[in-house]
Amino acid sequence: SSHLQKKRRAATARRQHLKSAMLQLAVTEIEKEAAAKEVEKQNYLAEHCPPLSIPGSMQELQELCKKLHAKIESVDEERYDTEVKLQKTNKELEDLSQKLFDLRGKFKRPPLRRVRMSADAMLRALLGSKHKVCMDLRANLKQVKKEDTEKEKDLRDVGDWRKNIEEKSGMEGRKKMFETGE
């Protein structure tokens, strides 16, 4: 049993090691992502917000203010459009997740039970009509003696008594009996 305990300990240690390695990997990925986002932000700001140089004269200052107001207005419109798009997308997401929830509620998966199944039955279930019985069926057949088949032949010739009774019962049977003269 000590061997088994050592094995278990080794497996647990390995699992812990893998877990910590995965966490470390995740941390470095998150840090990389954050750094990339910061670089992207700086580039965007440099492109869209050039450093401001304040002019000396009153007229130039008024021109600058007008330009800034126009820029603010266009950015505000952009922000509004983006917000509307986001709201629309969020609504679609909510609707889809609601549909998913409804569907999950309707179709409960039945608890699966173990079923004993022959190889042929399994192949038929998996392949459907394409399955040709390719197992050795002769192994499953019982041996038949010659005399048995002759006895069965005699019985077949006599016919099934239930069939005869059914044929003679009811109005149809009486009509037949009358016509044949039985």
From TrEMBL:
<dbReference type="GO" id="GO:0003779">
    <property type="term" value="F:actin binding"/>
</dbReference>
<dbReference type="GO" id="GO:0003009">
    <property type="term" value="P:skeletal muscle contraction"/>
</dbReference>
<dbReference type="GO" id="GO:0060048">
    <property type="term" value="P:cardiac muscle contraction"/>
</dbReference>
<dbReference type="Pfam" id="PF00992">
    <property type="entry name" value="Troponin"/>
</dbReference>
<comment type="function">
    <text>Troponin I is the inhibitory subunit of troponin, the thin filament regulatory complex which confers calcium-sensitivity to striated muscle actomyosin ATPase activity.</text>
</comment>
<dbReference type="InterPro" id="IPR001978">
    <property type="entry name" value="Troponin"/>
</dbReference>
<keyword id="KW-0009">Actin-binding</keyword>
<comment type="similarity">
    <text>Belongs to the troponin I family.</text>
</comment>
<comment type="subunit">
    <text>Binds to actin and tropomyosin.</text>
</comment>
<dbReference type="GO" id="GO:0005861">
    <property type="term" value="C:troponin complex"/>
</dbReference>
<feature type="coiled-coil region">
    <location>
        <begin position="27"/>
        <end position="106"/>
    </location>
</feature>
<protein>
    <recommendedName>
        <fullName>Troponin I, fast skeletal muscle</fullName>
    </recommendedName>
</protein>
<dbReference type="InterPro" id="IPR038077">
    <property type="entry name" value="Troponin_sf"/>
</dbReference>
<keyword id="KW-0007">Acetylation</keyword>
<keyword id="KW-0175">Coiled coil</keyword>
<dbReference type="InterPro" id="IPR050875">
    <property type="entry name" value="Troponin_I"/>
</dbReference>
<keyword id="KW-0514">Muscle protein</keyword>
